[in-house]
Amino acid sequence: MSHSMSSPRNIQLVFETYQKARLVFVQTMAELATRSSNVKCLESAGVLELLKPLLSDACSTIRQCAVVAIAKLAEHDLDIARQLLNGGIITITLENLNKYNVYYKRSALYLLRAVAKHNEELASAIVRLGALEHIVSCLEDFDTQRCTGDECSGSRQSWFWG
């Protein structure tokens, strides 16, 4: 490596390029996952293994997009929904819930819904992981951010319950 390549600005550019590449990847995976016809191809390419570490990425946008991409995959495929439970992705998402912002929380709730909607077995598995407490906490957090006083008491995010 030449001396000019090791300047602080060039080093910073390498990290910025790396972050942009991760962001483009998760955004592209989320877009591809919107089509059910792409799901098997993405699965066979190992998309879940590639997205899993991005759930804890340093960049909040990358974390959120990774959750959305995984949720879209789960929406279309029961086997993927099962893999998310068995592979620890739901557990990681739940562990991260209280660490991150409201956008991550909304995306995480979308993921839980995408898995639970398939059948009672998966919904029960999510409950056994302690998801209900996290869901209630998120909904309370949403109410706190959206409302002051009693004008919104009792409101809940109907988009979550479908």
UniProtKB/TrEMBL annotation:
Parts forming coiled coils: none
InterPro entries for this protein: ARM-like, ARM-type_fold
GO CC term (a single one): microtubule cytoskeleton
GO biological process, alphabetically ordered: cilium movement
Record-level Gene Ontology MF annotations: microtubule binding
Record's protein name: Sperm-associated antigen 6-like
Organism: Bombyx mandarina
Chain's gene name: LOC114247519
